[in-house]
Amino acid sequence: MFNGGSLKARFIVLLTLAVVLIVMDLKWAKMNQTRAYLSLLITPLQWVVDTPAQVADELSDVLVTRTQLVDENRRLRQEALLLKQRVQQVASLTAENLRLRELMDGRKRLEQDVMLTELIGVNPDPFQHQIILNRGSEDNAYVGQAVLDSGGIMGQIVELSHYTSRAMLITDSRHAIPVEVNRNGFRSIALGNGSVNQLELGHVPDTADIREGDLLVSSGLGGRFPRGYPVARIVSVKRDPGQSFALVKAEPTATLNKSRHILLVDLPQTTILPTELDEVEAGKITPEQASQVTESPGE
């Protein structure tokens, strides 16, 4: 119809058609019904055209929400771990206040600096309880630094590289840590026996005041571990009338085989004299020989 016609003619025809449709819409009652049918036919086309925009909006909301949730979850995990580290010493401090004990040198208890780290590997050797962490010398980690999780002491760093470190767990058969019973201050050395959920207290006198359920906390002797952090809880005390020492077993409070987010505690660097624990780690004496020199505070 419009082939070969001028643009002006096309404009006049279209304008006339538009005027006619407007007049019909105003004067002809059936035009409303016709418009409704036309809208019904066009509706699927509108849905199809609008679908990509709706899908894009939904995906954008999902991605943004998931990213926010991941970031918030990571932040909350870190905050929870830091808060748990700060309250780990509450039990030790409460017991100490109840016993009305004061530090002989009058020094105030200082809050240690901590560094968040993450477990990235486990030693596959079943006879060596070691984990690999994503902090190294470049992060100011150092050999002998205490390793904790939200439950208590896990172990200490024994090897160091630039960006990673290797920590020995307290359950390793070569590890020993000075502890004290939180209830009464009885001191001993907790020895690893190669079981991931068990420690032993060697050469505990048969008359020692120690019982199931007692909480063992780090005594701070030796300068390797901060004082007052949970180490284990006594699960078994066997006394043989014919033996001089009781067989005492404890379960670590830290979740050694599950923890992934971990804390490194930075102790003040001080010069200390060699202790039985250092000699154990150096191989000069056995853990059993070191245990023989421990004594209760009342002795």
Automatic annotation (TrEMBL):
Gene, per the UniProt record: mreC
Listed name of the protein: Cell shape-determining protein MreC
Biological processes, Gene Ontology terms: regulation of cell shape
Keyword Coiled coil appears in the UniProt entry: yes
Family, as annotated: Belongs to the MreC family.
Gene3D superfamilies in the record: Rod shape-determining protein MreC, domain 1 (2.40.10.340), Rod shape-determining protein MreC, domain 2 (2.40.10.350)
Lineage top rank: taxon: Bacteria
Keywords in alphabetical order: Cell shape, Coiled coil
Record-level GO cellular component terms: plasma membrane
Organism of provenance: Amphritea balenae
